[in-house]
Write a structure and sequence with these properties.
Arylsulfatase, C-terminal domain; four-stranded antiparallel sheet; ten-stranded mixed sheet; Alkaline Phosphatase, subunit A; globular; 19% strand; alpha/beta; 462 residues; 14 strands; homodimer
């Protein structure tokens, strides 16, 4: 009897008793700026996402699943650490994300998902966009990942401004977005701590990330592994490989989503082909809402209000599917969940220890595996370091609102209250009729804010 | 060998040759004021519609399926006749629907779906809301239906204004909507041409309609039948039976949708149980978009703009599923379709003749059965008798816009142009960049309008 067979048998026996579960492989597929409404199974009228739709049917689609922040860097910090970015210094109200000239990054004392899983013997691989610090000490391979292939920040950074100015002067304003060419951006493609090249062919990013991910899965299929596949797309500038050009009636954005959908299909197919699907938990979600300032080059939030950069639902509620054939109860979950919860959930599923003192992570495993109610009852909506809104149960209270990228901030003397179950679009303020609910949420806010401690702001670090 | 078995065998042989198909049973389930976003499979984050979701997976979900008008009476006239209501006089810009004091109704010369199918030997039954005239000559049983059980117009008509005034004076404005009681409305429940009672218990409407529909199916399962089940819900006042109270976290509206979903499940289950599912085409759709002026007592249009009463997409694009196991190719169809097309489609599927001179109906059967492109390439958006907008392919041109129930009409010197495939929310006007597309659509409009003839306005008839 092969060792792996024996382990499987033992696991089966243990599982049947409901006590301990064999440590599953973990795959997190994280997209960039994809909106809540950008899956067919979330109601997009045009985009074709058959692989995501199938994943949703076979797995659990969560409809109230939030990221830790409405922009890239702090959102990713929340996923990696299970802690609100305001605790790690990975958010700021001025520079909202890390830039190529930033000196900061994820502090060494933060315990990442990869470090946690590595301590349990997992092979840990990352493919794709990091955006938690590009100086060597901050890179994935210094944060628990055995390997990393990808770009350190967004694909629109390190722009060749002179060239872009020239192109737009010739072809019209915004041409570099409408007809992007990889050479307009000097973003580095890296492997470990080494820069492989500048201005990589961005048309190949989704395809190559997928191939690298499949290689990682095949190379590590004999042991528990953790794969973090963080797509650079559909962040502008939008690129897709030759095969996906003009496939969608929804334009370049549609093509890009169709290639991501293909990528998801390839990953799941690999897991099936290798016979490890029923021992692998896959999470698909996005880092924040759609970048609506880019109009049809951005996605849509479906029925939700607002998009990337804002604390309206469209900025932080994401398209989300958990998949683990045979273990995850198929269905649709309306309960609250967050990328913040992945830490505690994976700790629970793998027997790992949560070592941080202050965490914002709930163990969702009983919901995933047994359909139990989610332990998460509240969500905090930060814009930079400021708490703009709090959700508790069905209700969300906005203390301040602001569009993603406009100077239209409003601080409310009387906050806005919405019942998100009845009013997902945040259209109908019911503050007047519900003073007790407001008082409850105020108390939750106060208790939460009392736990915050001053930390160094990594995003403003010079 | 029984005669029906012989017929089935013959049909099977004929079908295999792809020449003629046995005449299928037809079931149309039509809801009232349900929004595009009000199915879980169209992205509603809270509503639970497992039966519709399953129907969509087994059948074809259409994502660009339009009704003939943005309010009740003209929409239903379009479905029944396959002709734009402006041709039958069933629309008006003043009184937008028929009221209990109206003297008009569907003109006798209009050839209804029921008359067409009756001429092919179909048993024709209707259950639910009619709203095409309540005087005897206009009723369903004088328009091709063998039987009818339901209400002649909307469930908020024949209001007892005195009583409602009193209730609201005591309990607060709008209490009759928030806490409706059947006795506030004197709407009649009818069977054929007979009024069974006034102010029927509206809590039982969905349930009773469902039971009556199932009875009709069982009674007619040996011959081709046409069942038109036109739910009164989720039109306000909202009512649901005891079993569905407080089931949904989305409030009364959610409960009502869950009961409709249950009803759909019961109808499909009956077809399966009786062994006639694979010889029955079922269409599920709604008469117009959500009545957003009722806030959380109305539905949502999901990613679409506007709602009931407007010619924005949310007013006329509907949640739509076709189901016919074994015949309809499962999938999602992005091509255009309309309730106007049901007439020609059913004529094609049943061998019936289209006798009207001017029709607005395309045969969708090749799309349904073989995945062919839809023959419908354009859609006309009327508000009353005025053409507000035209869609052609991906593009929609608005000559005028107005909210469903506000006096905010704008007539554009330069019309608004949207690419609906790339911009389903009609957010990004691209008129400036596309003069040729505008010229094309103007030509389509002119050609269409040249076909219109003056008709008697049935809605203003005194």
């Amino acid at each position: 009897m092969r060792k792996s067979t024996l382990i499987s048998l033992v696991s089966l026996v243990i599982c049947s008793c409901g006590l301990v579960r064999a440590e599953p492989n973990i795959v997190i597929i994280f997209t960039d700026d994809m909106g809540y409404g950008d899956m067919s199974c979330n109601g997009h009228p045009t985009l074709r996402t058959p692989n995501l739709d199938r994943m949703a049917t076979e797995g659990q689609k969560w409809t109230s699943f939030y990221v830790a922040a409405c922009v890239c860097t702090p959102s990713r910090a929340g996923l990696m650490t299970g802690r609100l970015p305001v605790r790690s210094g990975m958010c700021s109200s001025k520079r909202r994300v890390l830039f190529p000239d930033s000196k900061g990054g994820l502090p060494a004392k933060e315990h990442t998902l990869a470090e946690m899983l590595k301590s349990r013997g997992y092979a840990t691989g990352m493919v794709g966009k990091w955006h938690l610090g590009h100086l060597p000490q901050y890179l994935p391979t210094n944060n628990g990942f055995d390997s990393w292939y990808g770009i350190p920040y967004s694909n629109d950074m390190d722009a060749d401004h002179e060239r872009i100015k020239e192109v737009n002067a010739t072809n019209g304003r915004g041409d570099h977005w409408q007809n992007p060419r990889s050479e307009y951006w000097n973003v580095p493609l890296m492997e470990g701590e080494k820069i492989l090249m500048r201005s990589p062919d961005q048309e190949l990013l989704t395809k190559t990330y997928t191939e690298r991910s499949i290689e990682f899965i095949r190379a590590n299929k004999q042991r528990p592994f953790f794969l973090y596949l963080a797509h650079s797309m559909p962040h502008v500038p939008l690129f897709r490989s030759e095969k996906f050009k003009n496939r969608s009636t929804a334009g370049i954005y549609g093509d890009v989503i169709e290639e991501i959908d293909w990528s998801v299909g390839e990953v799941l197919k690999t897991l099936r082909d290798e016979g490890i699907a029923d021992n692998t938990l896959v999470l698909f979600t996005s880092d924040n809402g759609p970048w609506t300032r880019f109009k049809t080059l951005g996605g849509i939030a479906g029925p939700l209000r607002g998009g990337k950069g804002s604390t309206w639902e469209g900025g932080m509620r994401e398209p989300t599917i958990f998949w683990w054939p045979g273990s995850i109860k198929p269905g649709i979950v309306h309960d609250l969940g967050s990328t913040l919860d992945i830490k505690a959930t994976l700790a629970s599923l793998t027997g790992a220890e949560l070592i941080e003192e202050q965490r914002d992570s709930y163990d969702l495993s009983a919901t995933l595996l047994h359909g139990a109610p989610s332990p998460r009852k509240e969500m905090f909506f930060y814009r930079g370091v400021e708490l703009f809104a709090v959700r508790h149960g069905s209700y969300k209270l906005h203390y301040s609102t602001q569009s993603g990228y406009k100077n239209d901030r409003v601080d409310y003397e009387k906050p806005l209250l919405y019942n998100l179950d009845m009013d997902p679009g945040e259209n109908y303020d019911i503050a007047d009729e519900n003073p007790e609910i407001i008082a409850d949420i105020n108390r939750i806010r106060d208790a939460h804010q009392a736990t915050l401690k001053p930390v160094e702001n990594q995003l403003e670090k010079k």
